[in-house]
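Q: Hi! Curious about what 7TMR-DISM extracellular 2 looks like structurally. Here's the sequence.
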Amino acid sequence: MYKPGQPYSTACNVKYMLAVWLLLFCCTAQGQDFFEVDDSYIERNFMPYELEYYLDTTNSLSFYQISSNSFSNRFQKHSDYQNKDFKTNASYWIRLPIRHKAESSKVWLLEFYDQTIDHIEAYVPQENGSYRNVLMGDEQPFAQRTLRHKNFEIILDIKSDTAMYYYFNVRSHEFADIRIAFRSVDRFVYYALNEYFLFGTFYGMILIISLYNFLVYLAIREIKNIYYIIYILSVAAYAMSYDGIGFQYLWPNHPEWNNYAVGITLYLVIIWGLIFTRRFLSTKANVPVLDLAIRWMIVARSIWFIVELFFLPQLLTYRNVEIIPLSLIFYTGIKVWRQGYRPARFFVIAYGILFMGFFIRSLVYFNALPFTTPLHYSLHFSFVLEMLFLTFALGDRIRILKDMRDRALRRIIHQHEVNMRLKDKVNRELEQKVQERTLELNEKNHQLEETNTKLERQSYEINQINSILDLDNWKLKNSIKEVLNERLMEKTMDYNQFKTIYPDTLACYRFLENLKWTKDFHCRKCANEKYFDGAQKFSRRCTRCGYNESITAYTIFHSIKFPIEKAFYIAYLTVVGHKDYTLESLAEQLELRVNTLWGFRHKVADRILELEKKGHKPNASRWDEVILLPEPGSKASKKSQRKVVKQVEG
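A: Let's find out. The predicted structure is below.
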C-alpha cells in the first residue's frame, strides 16, 4: 500500500501496466462497453443502476485486489438498484471505463453530486500505467479539494487515445447518492454559477424575511415574530448543513462537524416549529388538547435528540421520524382553521406545501420520480413557499386584529352618537310636537303643488311624444317604400356610393374592430380574455401568452396587398352577385391587377360556399357575414369551391 495522494512506485508500474492491459483485453473480449469522450455533448450522468460496482461489506479489500484480473468479472451492473438499497458503512468499489480522445478540445471532469458522502477514494489512471490516488469526502478539510465547490470533482488528464478504467471506493455512515457526472468544465462552471446564484437567492430571501419580521416585532412587540425568525433561521441552518454550503463557508476546517450539523439543525427546525405553532395558533385557548400534545411532543423530541447526540449519533440524520411532529403541526392548523381562526388558512397552506416538498423528495429517493435539478431541490422550493405563506399568515393576523380594533372603535363612536341623539331627542320632543301640525300642512301643500307640476309636465311630454311618433311613422313609411323599390329594382351600390360608407382604411379598420370583438376579446392561443394594445394599430395582445392578433387576422382580408377599402367593395359585389362588371372593367375601375382581383374574389367565393353549406346564405343586407373566418378546421371541397367561383364569375 501507499500514501493517499501519491502515485504507485516505479517498481509497481510495470506490474500494473501489464495488469491493466490484460484487464482491458479481457473486458473487451467480454463485450464491455467503454464510454467514449465526445465533444458533441457537454455532460453524461451515470445513474447507480448504470454503474459497474462491487460491494465489499467487510471493507477489507485493497485496490491491488480490486484492480486485479481475477476481480474483473465481479464488477456488475445492478439494473434494479434503488436508493433504499444502499448499504451504510460498506465499501462500494465502482469501476468506470472511459475511452480517451486526444483530439478533444474540452477539459473534462468527473463529479459526485452527493456532498454528504463520508469517504471517497478515487484511483485515477495515468499515462505511464500507474494510478494516482485522490482522497475526497466530507471527512476531509474543505481546503484539500481540487475545486472549491460543495461537490467532489476530479479533472481528467486526456492526452492520448487510450481506454482507461477509473476506480472509486465510496463509503458512508448514512445513505449516499453514488451517481457520477461526466461533464466538461464549461458545463460545470455554468451549472455551478447558476446553482450558487439560486443558493444566494434562497438564503437572501430568508434574511430579508427575518429582517422584515424583526421590524414588525419592533412595531407590535409580539413574541411570536421572534419565534418565527428563529424558526426560519433554523431552516436556513438545516439547508446549509444539508446542501454543503455550511461546510464550505462556516466550518471548512472542521469536517467532524458534518456528522452532527444536519441532526442538530433538524432538531432546531422541529422544536422552533412546534413553539411557533403554539404561539401563532393560540392552541392553549383554541385547542387545549392539542396544545398539551404539542408540549409533550417538544419534550419527547428533546429527549430523543439527547439520546441521538450522546448515545446513537448514527441516528442524528434519520429524518423519517420528523413526520410525527410535522403531522401534529399540520393537523393542529387544520383544526384551528375549522374553528374559524382565519389566519390559520395561510398556516395550513404553508405546511401543506412543506409536506408536498418532503413527499416529492421521498419519491425521488425511492426512484418513483426521475432525478432532475428541480426535483432534487424541491425541499428548498417548499421551504421558500412555506416561509412566504407563514409571513402572509402573520400579516393577515395583524390585519384582522386591526380590523377588530377599528370595529370596536366604531362601535364606541356609534354608541356615543346614540347617547347624544337620545339627549337631544328629549330636548326636542316639545318643539317637534308644536311643529308637527305646521309641517303636515306645509307638506300637503307642497305635495299638491308637485302634483300639479307633474301633471303639466306630463301633458307637455305626451304632446312631444305624439309629435315624435308622427314624424317616426312618416319616416318609416318612406323607408318601407324605398326598401320595396330597392328590392324591385335590385339596386346595387356603385363604388362611389360604397365609399360614402367606407371612405378610407381607418373606417374599415373600425368596422372590423366592432365586428371581431363585439363580445370582448378572446385569445385564440390560450383562451384568455384580457388584453392590451398590440404593436400595430387596432391590434390586441394577450396578457397571458403575449400572442399579438392583428385587426385583419382570421378574416378574409388577412395578408392582402392592396387597400382594404377596395377589398371591402370586392367582397360586397361578390356577395350581391352583381354581374354587370367584368373582371377587366372592375380591375380598371379599382386600379388593380386582374389576377389580384380574381384571387380575392375566389377567396370570398370560398367563404360564401362555407356559409351556404351551413344553411346560411348571405345577401346584400348581410354581406359582412363573409368577413370573419372560422377556426381552422373544416373546409369546403375543392370541387365545390370551383363551382362557386364559376357561379360568381358568371
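A: A fun detail: The chain has three domains: 10-191, 196-400, 495-520+552-649.
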